[in-house]
Amino acid sequence: MRVVAVVVGVLVLCALSAFAGLTAGINLNPQSTVRFVPDWGSVGDWVSGVGALLAVIASLYMVQRSERFQLARDSEQVMLTQEPSMAWLTLHIACKGLRSCTVMDLRIGHGGKCSSLKHALSDRNKGVFPARLEPGEMVQLDWSGRDLIPTLQTICHLGLKNTDGLYFEVVTGISVHRFGLDTLTLEELQTGADAFDISLTKREDGLPF
């Protein structure tokens, strides 16, 4: 809004300067031009008109700002935080917007392939979905040790050539939110895969294991 006001003010100043310069130029060179006597009383009308224009611009700005705020209120905002550590993976799914959301599923995918992780949740997280979250609330998912095996097998069955581009998808009642796997998360999954002799990518013979 300040930028708009400054721009309009500069334009008004330029217009007045040009008007004054035109008046002086014509009056100082009467032989080549027709004498021009401006009606300076009309300047007030111009200022009034510019003020009305600024009022309209301000109104439009406030309307757009209100619409953006309303859109933010109505939109669903979900955050996924990844916290890998030695033989342990923790995910936090949080509702960060101004409206509640219902998390229906967590998926892992690559390109156009995607698989649900509902069956790969640890025993302490079984039955967590659907999870209704109010603004500011979150659900925590934990895997440790052998808990990771079903998740590793799910990735394996995607038949990937490499793990670059793996992502999590948080599925809610109205949308799907995608989050790329952090480097540390990938490293932790690869460490677990090596420990349990599971290949996350397709072997040269085409077999997943």
UniProtKB/TrEMBL annotation:
Keywords (A to Z) from UniProt: Membrane, Signal, Transmembrane, Transmembrane helix
Record-annotated membrane-spanning stretches: 44-63
Signal peptide stretch: 1-20
The protein's name in its UniProt record: Uncharacterized protein
Organism of derivation: Pseudomonas veronii 1YdBTEX2
Lineage per the UniProt record: Bacteria, Pseudomonadati, Pseudomonadota, Gammaproteobacteria, Pseudomonadales
